[in-house]
Amino acid sequence: MKRLLLVPLIGVFLLAGLSCGGEETKVVSPQPSSTASPEVRVTPSALPTAPASATPKASATPRAAASSTPQPSRTPSPDFSPFAKEWGRHGFGVTVAAGGEATATWRVYKWCSDDPTPPCDDMVDSEITSGGHATLVFDRVVGETAYGRVQGSTDEATLSGNVSLTLQPYDMASLESLDRPESEPIVLCGPNFWQEAPESLKEQSPCGA
User: How many whole angstroms separate alpha carbon 188 and alpha carbon 105?
Assistant: First the structure.
């Protein structure tokens, strides 16, 4: 009786095994957990910052501004070239340099042998040494006239103070003492007077014999 009961049970187990063996076995892939990688938030303090020295500093005063400042123009030097020569007349002579410096010599018509008090004319080796001497400096030119001042004179009655030298036609000029308006201008002739002057003027001998 027991054997008969075991046979049906064995059959039931075999059928159950066959039914289980016939089904497909499914492999379930593990899903990534939402908690596997935590979210990383970047805060501003974590960002690298450039060093302070990397920012260029603006110059307080641009160099271009300094160069654009207008510079005062220099006043041109006076042109004394028309006056720069030897001027003379009988007993009087003036030599003007290109820079405006000048020297003058003249006879005072008093012999040192008669009265040695200066100024006086002297005779040395049969040559007359004039007693009048002066140094002049011209500093400006207006038109045909150069203006200056006597720096030193041995005969202030003849030449002293402020003076002017004015060009005249035929290489002539007149020297005037501006501080003594009562004095007569001294007429002078240049080296080219005898070539430029007409015969009528030469006959007058404006600069003396």
Answer: 13
Residue 27: band (very low, low, confident or very high) from pLDDT cuts 50, 70, 90: very low
Nearest to 136 by CA among 159, 106, 158, 120: 159
What digits encode the pLDDT tens for the residues 69-123?
Answer: 666 667 788 999 999 999 999 999 999 999 999 999 999 999 999 999 999 999 9
Full set of structural domains in the chain with CATH? 86-198 (2.40.128)
Question: Cα separation of 50 and 31, whole Å?
Answer: 43
Contact assessment for residue 92 and residue 186, using Cβ atoms and an 8 Å cutoff: yes
Q: What is the pTM of this model?
A: 0.64
Largest Cα span, the chain:
198
